Amino acid sequence: MTDEVGTMRPNYRRTDLSSGHGYRQAKVERDIAGSFPELAEFVMTFGLQRAVWRDVWSSGPSAQVGVEVRMAPGIGRFRLHAPARVVEVLEDGDRFGFTYGTLQGHPEAGEERFVVERRADGTVQLEIEHWSRPARWFTQLAGPLARLAQSRATAAYLQAAERHARDSASG
What we know:
Layout: E1 24-32, H1 36-44, H2 47-52, E2 55-58, E3 68-72, E4 82-92, E5 95-102, E6 108-118, E7 124-134, H3 137-142, H4 144-170
Antiparallel strand pairs: 1-7, 2-3, 3-4, 4-5, 5-6, 6-7
Helix pairs in contact: 1-4
Organism: Flexivirga alba
Protein name: DUF1990 family protein
Domain DUF1990: 19-160
């Protein structure tokens, strides 16, 4: 869980995250065949997180600067707590998204950004980008396995977006 004051880690903003601090950056983009407004709402209300993680709590109904979100992957005593705070929101007609920075207790230190964009040709794209480094002893020890877990989580977010678009179109 997060500490009582929801403390951000030093150098949590991506503008401060340099390779000198051990941060890795990864970015994926995928076209999603679906409704832009519906996908934007799904992303902005933490739908990706709720679709992927077992337990998700947020201090607000949608992504706004300062809203905290806690994901709890795992089962029983093997459950991790991954608290984060929204640090940036993008709401620009054809682009909606947010960035959250990790809080104390999160297995990784850094930021993750989720953006849905409607392009001029009408296609819809989801972009997920993260800047991170291990923050807990077990993610440091896990090394490449922790990076693999993060890649799998990103793939699960993309699948959740595609599933949501499919379900929205058929329902």
